[in-house]
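Review form for a predicted model. The reviewer records the input and the model, then writes brief findings.
Reviewer: anonymous (R2)
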Amino acid sequence: MNKHSLCFISFFFLFFFMLINFFMMIYFIMNNMVIFLEWEIISFNSMGIVISILLDWMSLLFMMFVFLISSSVIFYSKSYMSSELNLNRFIILVLLFVFSMILLIISPNMISIFLGWDGLGLVSYCLIIYYQNIKSYNAGMLTALSNRIGDVMILMLISWMINYGSWNFIFYLNFMGNDYSMKIISMLVILAAMTKSAQIPFSSWLPAAMAAPTPVSALVHSSTLVTAGVYLLIRFNNLLVDMFFMKFLLLMSGLTMFMAGICANYEFDLKKIIALSTLSQLGLMMSILSMGYGDLAFFHLLTHAMFKALLFMCAGVIIHMMSDNQDIRLMGGISLYIPLTSLCMNISNLALCGIPFLAGFYSKDMVLELVSMSNLNFLVFYLYYVSTGLTVFYTMRLLMYLMINDFNLLSTYNLYDEDFIMLKSMFMLLFMSLVSGSFLSWMIFSYPYMIYLPFNMKMMVIYLTLIGVLLGFFVSNMGIYSFNKFLKTYNLSYFLTLMWFLPNLSTYMLNYSMLVFGQNLLKNIDMGWGELYKSRGIFNIMKNYSVIFNVYQMNNFKIYLFSFILWMMIFIFMVLF
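Model under review:
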């Protein structure tokens, strides 16, 4: 098969499934329907293998978004990966990835959820190491091992659910909340979701996963891998409300949001900045989820998926045109040369900031206003609002470096805006970034949220946005008025860019201690005492004994006579005494 034909067929089928899901979802919402299917694959003696499928408005809507984004990504890859010899292998890996996510979405059963969950982890490893170099291998291992912690939690959860006699967790959510076993199960679910959605202390794998090709990043960081944990918690939300562990999750996700916002302001790698913004938005989803607003977390998850996929696609186009260079300090003034890509980039960035009437505004504004209404302490309130301000801050900094600042490119460059395959897939997501917020808010929330706040509290988001724009402008300004010359903030950059030393703690510390332990074992046991008492020692003993036995067997008369006299002396000694 021609390498481009598989691309086109995959795009066509995914887009077709997206349309089917869309019409089914409209029908399900209008009729308030839920379909629960059980398909018995095999029944042998008393054992049955059954696959359960849950179709409701939530799973259908999420599947629609996954199909839409993955179809755009595959269409985009047709151009982005056109020089790739093994394009078919890449497309098949992406399709496997999408299939694993779909399996996770439609499963009401912990076993099939685990199959999808583990499928995501394994295929993501294959995609991250796609460009085979040492950096990709390190990033792939870090991702796989971090996600393996979550897989172990799910396995423990499956073993605990044997207490109930069935793995269909959907049956237990409403009336088993106070049961001791269910509390352990819910704690394991939260830990698993924290690893998959990269909350502190498991955050270091998410920026490292940027070693993957950019289309993969667009898919992974918008609607598939990182949102799996959030989706699982949304499904378990009835069970988790009012648990102490949810308060812990609120603190961790708030700190994740804050940490990612700060780190993005000190990062110069274009893809890592966007990855850290994903981490920040995941913190927002997990924190609002830990307060009990499952529908709202789902709403933000969907709107975020649209503009984040678009943002990664624009970054991919820019990186291609910069001769595969990702450093934003070597970019600038690109809006003059690639206006359509810059348009997509700016609109997706503004949607990320929550500028009114774009997709991100509807979900983010509602989240922050509900936080303002909730009975929370000042720390959580501070984390929410400062993190929102930091989002605008790093977005403005990115726009300044890419669009507005002076032309900082290499002397040889080739900027063009006529790759229509990439542009078509980007415009499809651009349209959704503009309309999906209002479209989803009318559809998901059949009743309006009544949010009643004082004027200054209502305007707090606008204030923070304006402050973030100003700070971003001043910090990014390269001229004499640059803030950095006065604040000396870049002295802190080592601490801040290393994500509060999380990679050191989760990656290097563990590896270093294990490697040192292994080195000591090798030196002291394998090449030391073990060498003396095991392999080498046994060899020496055997060699010495064989020499002695060899001498005995040489039929030497003196030795026979000596041994006879020795035996006689022993015999006489025993008789006499």
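Findings: Strands lie at 35-44, 47-55.
Further findings: Residues 502-533 form the longest helix (32 residues).
Recommendation: see findings above.
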